[in-house]
Amino acid sequence: MKKKAITALIAAVSLSLAACALPWASSETSTEEPTETSVSLDFSYTNGTSQTVVPDPIVDDSNSAAEHNKNMQAEYDLYDPAPGTGYVRSDLTNDWIPADAGSTRPIAVMIPNNLVSLPHYTLSQAGVLYECNVEYEITRLMAIYDNWTGLERIGNIRSARDYFVYWGMEWDPLFIHIGNIWYADAVLSEDQVNNINGAVYDKYFYRVTNERRDYDQTAYINGYNIKNAASALKYSLEHTSLYQPGHFSFASKGNPTTLTDVKGYKSATYVSLAEAYPIDQPYFTYNEEDGLYYRYEYGSPHMDGQNNTQLSFSNIIIQNTYREYRPDGAYLIYRCHDTTKDGWFITHGSAVHVNWKKVGEFGVTKYYDDNGDEIILNQGKTMICIVQDGDGVIIQ
Known about the structure:
The structure is a single chain. This protein has seven helices and 28 strands. The chain is an alpha+beta fold. It folds into two domains: about 10-55 and about 100-230, 3-Layer(bba) Sandwich (YerB-like fold); about 65-90 and about 250-355 and about 380-395, YerB-like fold (3-Layer(bba) Sandwich). The strands form seven sheets. Strands 3, 4, 5, 7, 8, 12, 20, 23, 24, 25 and 27 form an eleven-stranded mixed β-sheet that branches. Strand 21 and strand 22 (about 330-335) form a beta hairpin. The longest helix has 10 residues, at about 10-15.
């Protein structure tokens, strides 16, 4: 496998464990920007365990979702016909999007989530949103968008963590960030990782400085500049060989997933992750009328500053993940690749226990109920909450 600048040894080890972090509080500094420091890395876990991950992408029954979706097309179209000619189904949400958007790679954007970073802009238009802790128990978000070329203000945008790169690469995206700590150098240097780094290519980003927020929280990008950056960096806007269609399986609108037929299901009209994410303390409330979970954080509705819309989701996935601190005592390391951890799938007012697995360097994370069946999501947006194994989550 080719590398741009990092030795194969360090890259392979970093890819196996997938973790990065960057020490920052409410006002981060330029320490996030790429560094040339060369250090011998120790990625072993302090409890003596280790992880072996196949260093090349592995497709582990990932075609099952694509096959399911293909077989479901007639039912999808029966209950939710196309709004006109020239539309295709979104891989992120199963909603209709223009055909040219469907053939264009998505973008994965690193979004800060400390209080001074609010409000976010255009975040409500992301099809999939990830949340995970970084250092000091502050969370960072990663938004996955398709149909992004016309977006005018995406962000704000901050630095990358390498574990986010591993999750983001499941979608074969253009990966957008501003800076990173050196733990992420190895994975970001992979030829397959087509990243647009604002700390290097700042001309493609812009700042809005007439609002009352820290300067570090003022960086944005738009669809036009993303296309220009991709062209200049010779990144394809079409899917690459990493692309694995059918990341999720979806139910039709006329026959939604209710989970009531799955053994062990429980009511889920309120979901709190306050223990897992103690700074922003997010929670969700279920609206039975529209079937959506509305997100709150910092004690208020999580609003999109672009359109004054509260973030809402058809599906929530809670993914318990092994983590520990790196040797420096500040940065975190998450075991992105695993076959032994569990979590919860929440949709349509109910929740079921799930198990997840992710194998291969950029393999797709798959989720299965306790019968071993892959979960079937409801059409619409999905929130994926990565939490430390053992952190309490309230579902009631």
